[in-house]
Write a structure and sequence with these properties.
By secondary structure, the protein is mostly helical. The protein has five helices and two strands, in the order ααααββα.
Length: 135
């Protein structure tokens, strides 16, 4: 698994990698998690810079960016080269990290609530079945 390498010291990487791990645990894809945390740590980054920081390939960055742009978690600023060729793009978070990842948190909480309800119902049903079988 790639490690975010924005900070000079390994100790500074720990919180960023911990956030990536927690995002993965609530269902965010690894690549999206790396891009989100990298943009939080590094500000406006190009696709090439994201590849380097995240340790991902260009197609992986593109897929993650497509998801993030579609959900309006990230914005794309076109940087005109002033000459020939394609303009470059800089990507940045569309707000503070917590605000941007809130939809993922809300979704995880909703799934957790549903799972809790299902477990309670399962417990009730199995108790009734056990009582009925012993009667």
């Amino acid at each position: 698994m790639p490690q975010i390498s924005l900070a000079a010291e390994a100790a500074a990487n720990e919180p960023a990698n911990l956030v990536v791990e927690m995002l993965e645990n609530i269902g965010v894809s690894t690549n999206v998690a790396y891009v989100l945390v990298s943009l939080h740590e590094g500000g406006g980054l190009s696709s090439k810079e994201l590849q380097s920081v995240c340790g991902l390939r260009q197609p992986e960055i593109s897929l993650a960016m497509k998801e993030l742009l579609n959900s309006e978690m990230v914005r794309c600023d076109v940087q005109s080269a002033g000459g020939r060729g394609r303009p470059s793009h800089k990507y940045s978070l569309n707000g503070e990290l917590f605000t941007v990842i809130k939809p993922y948190i809300d979704d995880a909480e909703s799934r957790l609530n549903q799972l809790t309800n299902d477990l309670q119902r399962l417990d009730e049903v199995t108790r009734r079945l056990t009582r009925a079988a012993t009667s």
